[in-house]
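User: Please run a holo structure prediction.
Assistant: Happy to. Please share the sequence and the ligand.
User: Here you go; the ligand is flavin mononucleotide.
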Amino acid sequence: MARTLLYFAHPGQRQSHANWAMAQAARPIDGVTFVDLYADYPRYNIDIDREQARLRAHSVIVFQFPLFWYSPPALVKEWLDLVLEPGFAYGEGGTALVGKTLMLAITAASPAEAYGPDGFQKFPIRDFLRPLEQTAALCQMRFTPPYLLFGALDAQTHGSIPPHVAGYRALLTALRDDRYDFDAAAGHDVITCDALPLRAEG
Ligand SMILES: Cc1cc2nc3c(=O)[nH]c(=O)nc-3n(C[C@H](O)[C@H](O)[C@H](O)COP(=O)(O)O)c2cc1C
């Protein structure tokens, strides 16, 4: 059983539909340690020792957040800057994260077709995530393609939140139970709820 650490990072939860629903579904899953990052650190006073201990105790690390200006919300960046210290995450003696998995669960307002050379966002969404992908690589972690909800602002009217949330629950459960097919996932830019790379239950 893979121990999963889920960081939920949304600074405006009162206005959230998609991430809030995802968080409510994820929080009670057995074997998933759920952390509401903005609730833990409203003043950005990140406890580095606590976070490093959390990382050591888990093998799969998930960051769930809305895409803000092509990036994670600011507290995630602060967390990365402070927690991934040399000697812990990289550099001499920095082997704490070797072999662990990093997954992102992201919601974005723009539709999938906007993210590409012909769309108004011009670049594939994975291009905007390269800093996180390379952060994982530097820490010798496996970066697995992100779980994505595009069109997140219209998702409520279009009825796309419930299937996305159900997919999220299935994905987190499969990660926990070692039924997530990382090889199949690696063939995709992003993972969506209609094509989850899961192996059948035992
Ligand atoms: C400050 C800010 C920046 C945003 N930047 C982007 C962006 O770069 N790309 C995008 O597709 N959506 C962007 N959005 C839309 C959010 O990603 C969207 O509101 C969110 O994913 C909806 O999820 P929620 O219902 O959980 O809040 C932005 C929203 C805000 C408030």
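The mean pLDDT is 97.
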